[in-house]
Amino acid sequence: MTIPSKRIVLIPAYCPDKKLITLASALYEMDFTIIVVNDGSKKEHHSIFHTVSECATVLVHEKNKGKGAALKTGLEYIKNTFTVPYVVVTADADGQHLPEDILLVCEKAQEKTGCLVLGSRTIGRDAPLRSRIGNGITRLIFRLSTGTEIYDTQTGLRAFSNGLTDYMLSVDGERYEYEMNVLLHLGQQNISAEEVPIKTVYLNNNSSSHFNPVKDSFKIYREILRFSASSLLSFVIDYCLFCILMALTGMTVLSNILARTVSAAVNFSLNRNFVFSSRVHILKSAFKYFLLAVVVLTFNTCILKLLIAAGLPYIFAKIITEAVMFFFSWTIQRLFVFKEAKI
To answer: 179, 211, 243: which is the final residue of a domain?
Structure first.
């Protein structure tokens, strides 16, 4: 196996201060090739980029497009400019990533080609409150939705070899949601992630961050929220039909099967077109969804019958059953039904 020797640091920057100059200079002394993307910064920050250009290549967005777009601009440039093999390290411009930690994740990516290496911060009591809350919520939602444990899902310090460049360019998202989408889709592409502990640096209570807690958090969680909305609508259809059919027939199995059939058709259409925006051929994904629906229906009916047999009213038994199956269905749809071919 060829060990990538070219080390490239990609830094998206929006209105940076002199910490970017300090970081770029230190990385240059460590023989890194440095690519900085000026993501539509204001004119008063142009002198910073002029100084940085003495040791780095500076790419420019005339208007602010977002962190994800800046990273893709840099990756496209790297792909078209450098010969393989190489390793790319993405780092933030605000001084939170130390040169020694950038080197650390780079060396790990050189050892483990094909793996996404994450610089993982310890989120302790000294971290800003919004960082502790944000990382905690994101970590929980990420684990529930993917079944994968990643401690620091919001780290911007990441490293990977050239084999992952096309994948990184293919991921949707133009702003902060891009980094979360990269992690969400790893399983679909059979790409592993490995965390490497790094020092935790928060400058001025993380005031230099351009992350908008409300707007950007919505973008990060958008796919999960869409799936939840789709599942909720399908549940309402399923639940209402089930209750109506039970009232008319009193037959648990028949009522559950008919209700699930109708709600499954609605759920498949919503998830394929609205949640995952899947490009998998409709017949192929429909066949996979049918197999999943059979499995879900089997477990769903068994759990439902057991709860009703245990004396729980069918109205509440139905709610509990659907809650149990929610994350199982999410995981299988993401990793099996709407999974696209590996790049």
So the answer is: 211
pLDDT of residue 216: 47
List pLDDT tens digits, range 257-275: 898 888 888 878 887 777 6
Residue 117 placed within a domain: yes
How much is the pLDDT for 135?
Answer: 67
C-alpha 258/C-alpha 244 separation (Å) is 11
- Within 153-236, strands assigned E span 158-161, 192-197
61 phi/psi in degrees, rounded to 5: -100, 125
Quick one: pLDDT at residue 185?
Answer: 81
Mean pLDDT of 227-246: 84
Domain assignment of residue 1, yes or no: no
Total domains in the fold of the chain: 2
pLDDT of amino acid 279: 62
CB 189 within 8 A of CB 343: yes
| C-alpha closest to that of 318 among 225, 229, 237, 227 | 237
Domain limits at 240? Answer: 225-337
Distance (Å, whole) CA 169 – CA 171: 6
Q: Is the pLDDT of residue 139 over 80?
A: no
Q: Say if 219 falls within a structural domain.
A: no
Write down the pLDDT at residue 210: 44
Query: Pick from 211, 244, 279: which residue ends a domain?
Result: 211
The contacts of residue 192 (CB under 8 Å, 6+ apart) are: 114, 115, 116, 186
Please tell me the pTM assigned to this model.
0.67
Question: Are residues 106 and 84 part of one domain?
Answer: yes
Q: Is residue 116 located within the same domain as residue 262?
A: no
Locate 221 and state its tokens. 């969680």
pLDDT at 23: 96
Joined together, the tokens standing for residue 62 give 């005339």
The verdict on 108 and 236 lying in the same domain is no
In 3-state terms, the chain is what percent helix, strand and coil (to 5)? 60, 10, 30
Alpha carbon distance 268, 183 (integer Å): 24
Does residue 216 lie within any of the structural domains? Answer: no
CB proximity list for 199: less than 8 A, separation 6 or greater? 98, 101, 121
